[in-house]
Amino acid sequence: AAAPGRAPGPAIRAALDRYLAAQGVGLDGGRVLMLAHARVLGHVFNPLTLYWCHGPAGELRCVVAEVHNTYRERHCYLLRPDPAHGRAETPKEFHVSPFFTVAGTYRMRLPAPGESLDLAVHLDRDGVRRFTATVRGTRGPATTGALLRAAARHPFSTLAVSLGIRRHGIRLWARGLPVVPRPRHRAQEGLE
Fold first, then answer.
1. pTM for the predicted model, two decimal places
2. Which end of the chain has the least Cβ crowding within 10 Å, N or C?
3. How many angstroms separate the CA atoms of 34 and 45, rounded?
């Protein structure tokens, strides 16, 4: 179903398959694991959505890192992590923060989810680590009861992400960090 105020769009899997096809990647019906925030009370903001894309025999073919900014724009990075540690790197191509230019290299640790999850995204520029984000967690059951308990314990989790990003930005601006103008974003093939 479409979000309130938005026209219905293709299913997540169909949109992912369309993007992958535009990049020359076919999954041939293989499984996809997605990591994202859930919509809560009609709101969701996913700064980073990850898709672990497998072939029909279960082999990991790629990971798609879909990055969203607060301007409602998105950009996908097609990654081929090393099988041993899930490490990948890619040049930064998308404006995410008004405090960073579109320059540098993302170095990511994205092992496929198992019983636990331990991900990291680093932005390096000019030999200096400029930014790090991590996600850690332990697998739990996705039963109706477990989901209701999680929603009751954290009813505003997705809103907290949006507000936290904006609050941090205001703090950086108040400290005098210069604001970088947002460049025009070009839609990627397969994401139109």
1. 0.86
2. N
3. 15
